[in-house]
Design a protein that fits this description.
- Helix 1 packs across helix 8 and helix 4 runs parallel beside helix 5.
- 47% of the residues lie in helices and 15% in strands.
- Strand 1, helix 1 and strand 2 form a beta-alpha-beta unit.
Length: 255
Amino acid sequence: MGRMEGKVAFITGGGGGIGRATAERFAEEGAKVVVAELDAELGEAAAESARIRAANSGGDAHFIRCDITEHDQVAAAIAETVARFGKLDVLHNNAGGSTTNDGPVTEAPEEEFWRVIKLDLYGTFLCSKLGIPEIIKAGGGSVINMSSNVALMAFPGRDCYTAAKGGVASMTRSMAAEYAPYKIRVNAVAPSVTLSDRVKKLMADSPEVDKIGKMHLLGLGLPIHIANMAVYLGSDESEITTGQVIPVDSGVTVV
């Protein structure tokens, strides 16, 4: 029996990196997964890979093109998920990311601040706003947000990103208290440098990110490491784990 057998999961930014690895792991564990992704080519490929990984687990995967900053697109994607698979149990707010346009508050472009706030923080808010009512209808479940270790420690040179991810961490705790009566767990994963294709490029272009990469006690993380934590948080194994911002960061926040 898979650890997520019978569950329906909606993963934003599911086309690559952590999102794709999570879609594959969820499907392997028996979940029906919706890969919500803006890039259709990446999204279709991730859904196909997840379906292959599902094998005989009972899992499945379906791609829906979705811009998580657009209310109508998110509402339609959630509705299509429920129409296709019958319910929603797990919402993984994974989409987001920083760019090399970030910087200290005195230097970072205002456009970059609003870009990351809209994508990382508002996107998490909007998907939760529209997804949680369906989880309530299903009798409870799990919301997995994506924060970052930069929300838990000082990280100069990324003040736009730290603001957004700090907001996600705070919102996670308040949401956990708000929706506990509905048997909904709300947690956040806080990765450090995770070697997706996007982050590899960021490290090459950013001395600050490369420097923090060298602080890892057990080596740099891979998308699968974050995906494995998401499986725990999405499964019934985490039935009393809520309101937590959990570092999966190779010890960076303790050194």
